[in-house]
Every structure is written in structure tokens, then in C-alpha cells.
Design brief:
Elements (H helix, E strand, L loop, with lengths): L2 H9 L6 H13 L3 E2 L4 E5 L2 H15 L4 E5 L5 E5 L3 H10 L20 H15 L1 E2 L7 E6 L2 H13 L5 E5 L2 E7 L1 H10 L3 H50 L8 H12 L5 H7 L6 H16 L3
Antiparallel strand pairs: 1-2, 2-4, 3-4, 5-6, 6-8, 7-8
Length: 299
Amino acid sequence: MSFTSDIKSELCKIETPTCCKISECYGILLFGRAFSKNKITLVTENEEVVERLCHLLRQCYSVQPDILGGGTKRDYFTVSVTDAKKREDILNALGYFGFEKGDTLIKHQNIEDDCCKASFVRGAFLATGNVSDPNKDYHAEFPVKDGALAKEFFELLCEMGLNPKITTRGKTSIIYFKESENIEDLLTTIQATNHTLELAGIKVYKDMRNRYNRISNCEMANISKTVNAAVTQNNAIAKLKAAGAFNKLSDELQFAANLRQNNPEATLKELVEIAGGNITKSGLNHRLNRLVTLAKALD
């Protein structure tokens, strides 16, 4: 099962008061395939969503919808209210008869309380919502074919304190959420508590893994830098000896050269410790760099 399917499975088990049942049912129907006097239809791949909608329609409107299965590449279900009188009753109850130009598409009298707004959003998610696997990406979205409905829904989400963005994909409006915190807020709002916690846990794990990788990469870079410096210094000392220039060096430079040659893989800090604290780290580094400069001057 996908992450989205798991979330919807959790949502379908939530027990809600009557007012919220109506709001959730309203959200599913309004964001389904069709919601008009001619057709009320939801198309979904999720069998639990089908059962949830049927349960809500029976409880809220005494309607038993028709269910059809289909699909070639993958299974899907079509839930329809085929009785014209039942469709009229539902539309009347939700305030859609007497609809005039300029009226809002989302009837706020059906979602007056905060709990009902959250249930309405939950219904919209059950109908059309998707959340990417957070192990791969942080992305949640509501594809909405009606641009005016998408705009009203976007404004509602903003009023609820959520942080969505809106764009278009072809002729479909996409209301989406990026960043784990914004998706966690959405999941908390629709009461997907278990998946909110799972998402937060995945984020902590990914942050720790990324931090470890950054530290590891930094350590590898430092090791590489130390090894390259040691090789350059040893090569320079060998070159000075081969050219007969080594014995002409000052005692301080010969001391640094012998210290490096006797400990070819040691770090600068380790060389200082081996020297018994008779030289500082910066002082030793200066002398070793001086040896490299003198060797280059022989070219």
C-alpha cells in the first residue's frame, strides 16, 4: 500500500459527531467526480473510502448508493447516487438549489464550526488528496478540476492557518503543500495522527542521516587534505636530500624534516605531540611549508 492509502485507511476509522459526518460527506461529494442534479459520483481506487462514503450517505441522507467496479491496469470503484430524488434531497440539504451566479461553490453554512471545517478538508482529502512517500519527498496535494472551487478551497485552508500553495497542471488546479512541517499541520488538521507522528519520525531520521553524511564527508575531506600535505612534504624533503641541499638547512628545518620523514602518515597535531611540545602546531606547519617552497625553488 502507498503512504496515501495508509493515511486514508487511518482516516476511515475516525469516529465523528453528526455535524462532522455531514461535513466530511460534503467534502467527499464536492471533490468527487461529479456533484450536480444530474450526477453525484465519486471514483476511487480505495475500497475503504467507498465503505466510508456509503456509511456517511446512509447515516446523513438515508441513501444507499450504487457501486461499480472496473479498471484494466488497476482496479477502481465508482460510487453513484443514481436516484434523481435522492440527489435533489442531498443538494437541497447542502444549499445548492436556488444557486445563483456569484454564489460561493463551498457552502460555509455546512462547515461553520472548526471541527466541521477540519472534517470537510478530511472529506476532500479522501476524495482527491495525495501525499508522497516522505522517505523520498515532502509533497501533499489536492488536484481540483474546477478552478473556482480550487480558489475557494485554497482560501479556506489559509483561513484555517495552513500554508498551501496553488498552481495548475494542464486544466487542473493543484493545491499543494511542501516541507514536512506544512504537511504535518495538514495531517494533524484532518486527524491523521499516526501518520503525523510517522512523518515527524522520518524527518528526524533523515535530518540525522544528512548530518552524519555531512560530518563524514567533512572528515574524509580533512583526511584527504592531511594525506596530500604529508605526501607533498615527504617528496619535498626527499628532493632536498637528493639535491644535496638538506645539510645546508637550518637546524629548525632539519628537525621538522626528520620529524615528518620518521612519521610519514601522522597529522600535524600528532607530530607536535611526538615532538614533546617543543614546537607549536603553527610553527611546525610553517617549517614544513618552508621545506616545500625550498624544494620547488630547485626546479
